[in-house]
Structure to design on (752 residues):
């Protein structure tokens, strides 16, 4: 009788949640962020640059649209096809890295407004390079805030993903910045900073 | 053990307390002492020496104590105690006694040690109270005092207009005008479009204080001379008489402003049970310990799920729609909005049938009447202002009509039950000669897992803002792209591309259907509320401010 009542209470409170598959629970988000960080560590700087350029070009050409949803679905489809061509071992890393790059690409306007973009284009001949540098500075600012807001022990390898998730949940909405934009920016900055220091640039 | 003198005991106790205090406050840290400026160190030392020596002298501490504290006991018999001693404390055959006289027998610190102890005590006090910053503030104090109440002219900038040879002599004329030696600039008046001399009449930086005072006095006597003429006097007399006739309203208006009395009275009646039902919560509300402004200052996007969802969701929805300062401008002031919990389901009907009795029963009659009285006073003072403007057309000020009564007083009924209605029903209410329209809406009860919150927000918005509409044209959802709900929800069946896929939610406004997102608590955590909730709230507040406001 007790078991029956318990089952009834559970079903009454969340019937659809039992059936719906969750993909963005906290532990799933943290695992995903950790996977993305690890993937960025594993890939070489050269491959990373090529992937970035590829998605940059796709975003400006084939996947160009005024609707964020359409651009996102086009980029996801492109990434799926592109990663299918890699070998099985690297396919997951390819998807993770592509996800970070695409999210950054889609959220560029939230970091650099149209007006600022116009100023950069007006004042610099190689505006693409300047844009990337400016974006990097904005990502660095976010990463610095994360570092200052968390205790030191939370920023070790094991806890970094959880710290990024928690920080971006706090920031999301407070600055017209979505959770995924914040996560992708910080993950990209941390992942590529190590590569820059390795290559000495 | 020989008895110890009272003066010595007091000195040692004060010294012990002082040392403990200075160590506890970290005053004796070496780095802190090293950072003291020489003047501060000198001041502390002087203070300690002077104060300690003064206390030593005035309290006659060089003399031996008249009273002595001693202990007796152990194997000593009780009758062996000094007959002049008073017993203060006794425990397990140990006795603490206070005796008078017997200076030969007691122990007291020698005078030089007594003085040293008090100097040390005041040294500790000086180190605690006098620091580098407080010393700097003390030094600046006379200058600040002298400057207070004075406003100085800005530093003079090189004036191009007076650089021309024919205008150079005007610098002297302008300076004389600023210092009050000339009544007008004459030919040196700046030839601007407005032809207004831009001369500062405040105190000049190099002007002595007495000279500035004299200028103020002569300016005041000149203005009094203007007033003393007959016509001006009659005008002032008429203005005064007009104001005296409305004295009570003027006083009450000032009192309302100073006391920050409510400038509106909006009431929401709901059959939902009061969420703050524990004794502690009621006491906190009574004592205004939980400030409604602070409560709504940092709100999560949606209320957390749990027990008694209806009350929490309603309170949360109200806060988001009207009071959350994250979305600007704020829709209303929480002190002027009252929620009447546990109201009957037919509250609006009862209000329409007998408004006075119903409002009195719910402690709403007095707040409404106070606001309406304040409105009447505002109208009266507006008429007074217009009458005064007629007397003195030169000094006419722009006047705003106070908001209409139906904007500053409103009644709403939010009924939670098994059914919900998309539109609100209006019921006419007449109170003290004023006509109001009480609005009523029905909403379906929420579930404990958090579902139903969006409906609460939508129903409440419809109820509070007559004419409120939210559709795709005002939403931040893209008009071009609209995926079917089934297609969109199937995107979130696996974790692939978890970050990029969340971009689709930018085109899935919770307030335009998309209830499937409400059933996904994991997606709600990362949902872009800053887009859709903000859009919803801002559209609502625009519609709300058209119909509702405050004096």
């Amino acid at each position: 009788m007790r078991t029956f009542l318990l089952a009834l209470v559970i079903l009454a409170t969340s019937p659809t949640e039992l059936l719906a598959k969750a993909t963005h629970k906290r532990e799933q988000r943290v695992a995903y962020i950790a996977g993305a960080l690890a993937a960025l560590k594993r890939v070489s700087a050269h491959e990373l640059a090529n992937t970035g350029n590829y998605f940059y070009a796709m975003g400006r050409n084939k996947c160009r649209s005024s609707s964020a949803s359409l651009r996102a679905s086009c980029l996801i489809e492109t990434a799926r096809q592109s990663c299918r061509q890699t070998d099985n071992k690297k396919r997951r890393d390819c998807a993770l890295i592509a996800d970070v790059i695409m999210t950054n690409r889609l959220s560029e306007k939230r970091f650099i407004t149209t007006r600022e973009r116009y100023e950069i284009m007006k004042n610099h001949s190689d505006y693409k390079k300047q844009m990337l540098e400016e974006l990097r500075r904005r990502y660095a600012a976010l990463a610095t805030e994360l570092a200052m807001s968390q205790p030191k022990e939370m920023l070790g390898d094991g806890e970094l993903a959880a710290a990024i998730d928690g920080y971006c949940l706090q920031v999301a909405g407070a600055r017209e910045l979505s959770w995924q934009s914040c996560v992708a920016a910080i993950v990209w900055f941390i992942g590529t900073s190590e590569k820059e220091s390795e290559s000495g640039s | 053990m020989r008895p110890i003198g009272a003066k010595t005991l007091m000195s040692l106790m004060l010294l012990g307390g002082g040392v403990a205090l200075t160590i506890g406050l970290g005053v004796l840290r070496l780095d802190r002492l090293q950072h003291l400026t020489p003047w501060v160190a000198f001041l502390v030392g002087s203070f300690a020496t002077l104060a300690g020596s003064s206390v030593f002298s005035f309290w006659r501490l060089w003399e031996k104590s008249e009273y002595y504290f001693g202990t007796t006991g152990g194997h000593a018999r009780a009758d062996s105690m000094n007959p002049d001693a008073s017993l203060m404390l006794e425990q397990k055959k140990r006795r603490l006694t206070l005796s008078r006289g017997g200076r030969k027998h007691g122990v007291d610190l020698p005078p030089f040690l007594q003085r040293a102890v008090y100097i040390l005590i005041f040294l500790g006090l000086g180190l605690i109270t006098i620091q580098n910053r407080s010393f700097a503030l003390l030094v600046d104090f006379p200058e600040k005092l002298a400057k207070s109440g004075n406003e100085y002219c800005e530093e003079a900038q090189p004036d191009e207009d007076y650089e021309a040879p024919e205008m150079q002599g005007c610098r002297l004329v302008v300076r004389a005008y600023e210092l009050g030696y000339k009544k007008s600039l004459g030919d040196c008046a700046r030839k601007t479009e407005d032809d207004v001399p831009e001369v500062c009449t405040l105190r000049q930086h190099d002007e002595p204080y007495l000279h500035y005072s004299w200028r103020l006095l002569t300016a005041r006597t000149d203005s009094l001379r203007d007033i003393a003429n007959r016509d001006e006097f009659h005008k002032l007399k008429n203005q005064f008489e007009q104001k005296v006739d409305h004295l009570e309203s003027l006083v009450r208006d000032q009192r309302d402003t100073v006391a920050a009395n409510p400038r509106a009275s909006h009431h929401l009646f709901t059959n939902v049970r009061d969420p703050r039902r524990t004794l502690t919560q009621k006491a906190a509300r009574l004592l205004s310990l939980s400030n409604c402004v602070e409560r709504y200052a940092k709100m999560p996007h949606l209320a957390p799920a749990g027990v008694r969802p209806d009350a929490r969701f309603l309170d949360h929805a109200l806060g988001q729609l009207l009071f959350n300062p994250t979305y600007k401008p704020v829709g209303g002031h929480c002190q002027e909005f009252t929620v009447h919990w546990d109201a009957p389901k037919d509250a609006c009907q009862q209000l329409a049938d007998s408004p006075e009795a119903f409002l009195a029963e719910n402690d709403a009659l007095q707040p409404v009447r106070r606001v309406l009285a304040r409105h009447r006073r505002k109208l009266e003072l507006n008429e007074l202002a217009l009458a005064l403007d007629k007397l003195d057309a030169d000094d006419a000020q722009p006047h705003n009509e106070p908001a209409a009564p139906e904007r500053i007083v409103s009644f709403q009924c939010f009924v939670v039950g098994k059914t919900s209605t998309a539109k609100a029903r209006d019921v006419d209410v007449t109170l003290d000669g004023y006509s109001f329209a009480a609005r009523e809406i029905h909403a379906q009860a929420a579930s404990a897992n958090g579902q139903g919150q969006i409906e609460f927000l939508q129903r409440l918005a419809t109820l509070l803002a007559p004419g409120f509409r939210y559709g795709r044209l005002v939403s931040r959802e893209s008009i071009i792209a609209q995926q079917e709900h089934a297609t969109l929800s199937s995107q979130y069946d696996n974790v692939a591309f978890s970050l990029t896929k969340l971009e689709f939610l930018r085109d899935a406004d919770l307030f335009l259907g998309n209830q499937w997102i409400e059933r996904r608590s994991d997606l709600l955590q990362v949902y872009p509320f800053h887009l859709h909730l903000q859009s919803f709230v801002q559209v609502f507040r625009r519609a709300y401010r058209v119909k509702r406001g405050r004096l």
Summary: Chain A is about 80% helix and 0% strand. Chain A has a mean pLDDT of 83. Chain A touches chain B through 44 residues (CB under 8 Å).
